[in-house]
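For concreteness, we quote verbatim a single protein encoded this way:
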Amino acid sequence: MTLRVRRIALTADVSSSVGWLGAVAGFLVLAVTGLRGEDPQLNRAAYLAMELTTWFVILPFAAASLLTGIVSSLGTAWGLLRYYQSPCRARRLTGTHTTAPSWLLNLN
């Protein structure tokens, strides 16, 4: 990978990861609003917004974070699995991406 392509891949990786973190923070605000709200309509609206946020914001950012991380790591001299940190990170991300659909199915 050339330096320019590597920088673009790294920028995409960091941007998608920070976007994912921001989406989860927004999800947390909606969750607290839904749990602590006094108004039933507000609670229902918060839970509906949580479902939409999950499917259309959190999951795309999570997938983009995983894919850009793999592309970034494959483009380096170290590769994807050369050092022990890479398989640990991959295992953690894969665990996150495989367990997320199980709790998403419980939203309905």
